[in-house]
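Structure tokens please, single chain.
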Amino acid sequence: MGILSAPDSVDKREYWGFSLYDWANSGYVTTVGTVLFAPYLTSVAETAACGRVGTTDDPCHTNLHVLGLGISPGSLAFYVVTVATLMSALFLPVVGAIADRSPRKRVLMCGFAWAGALAACCMVFVSGDRWALGALLLFLGNLCLGSSLVVYDSILIDIAAPDDRDDVSSRAWAFGYLGGFILLAINLGVVTAHDALGLGKGTAVRLSLLSAGLWWGLFTLIPYLRLKDRPPASVVPVGGNLIKQSFGQLFATLRHVRSYPMTLLFLVAYLFFNDGIQTVISVSSTYGEKQLGFETQILIMTILLVQFVAFFGALAFGRFARRYGSQRTIMGGLVVWMVIVIAGFLLPAHQIAPFLAMGLAIGIVLGGTQALSRSAFSQLIPKGREAEYFSLYQAGERGTSWLGTLVFGLVHQLTGSYRPAIVALGIFFVVGLVLLARVDMRRGITEAGNTQPALV
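Here you go.
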């Protein structure tokens, strides 16, 4: 069996459909969410506020005015992500409850994916002083991504038995990093060679944003064609139409939430440490450009390195989990994350080698911690509430972290520097590690009524 092949007990057609949705949405996550859009939106906002793009030596200190509030152009993208995730806290649980009662999960997932892909494609029109359009499209793209992932993550339980989920989840993440790497490499060529192609730098960036939307939308056709729809099972009996049933199921789950203390403890731990992970990912390109003074080409090359290493890191963490269990493997990854944010604070400006070394370290732990968190959480979910619980899980998932981006934006606004903002993120990994160490996985799996895997 190859390193990316389906486990023997998993349907091969569905395995490929599941894995290639990670491939599809990673084009958006890397090109838009991680590398290009936050710095580009910051530049558009700075131009609107100051009439020029800020630099490390001469930053833009004029605020934008939104609903009577003064917003720093350098913090705009992070505040947009914060608002999107606060809205997700209200919207995604309803999406999850609907998905648990829907016999067409596949269609629901792909519908959200295509709506998000359309928002990403429309980013090609963000130029001049259209920072408000950019903020709106980023909001919609992140909300649709989170909604699609709620349904997508719940499908893992449908296609893989408990002992296969670490492998399937890790390999799907590996596919995602491979897909993100390929698209980002293409975009690196476009942005780097924009003069030779007869394009301005801004035009090259906007075309790259368009490519991410097209990539996401077109590759979503594969899971649409290969995944199977299944009738809902073991749902909470609630009367009324689908919407009323979904809200009823959500309220019933919230009323009985204390019956699953280990599930909730894991969820809270994940909320903290994943906020840290997602914030590091989403702010890395802005930190590299605005604080360390690197050009866009260097930033894309660094993210390419992260994507390439993360492909192998996700597979390696899957192997570690088979030997040491997913919980202990995740905890080891969190220790590495703490070292990373401290190193980020100390990075010297304009020196590429230390920046690349930090990217290498991020790549090693990035995919593994996220993939194993998904499969570990799937073991703790009561039957019939899979998508609903994953909707809560997605509130802190990639591209939708809120507390981390809020802290990062506020610390930057108060200090005028990104260095104290990056090191402040270490608290999320410390709290997440302490809480995760208190989770009794065996007890949680029993409480949820699920089959015990051989190793947790």
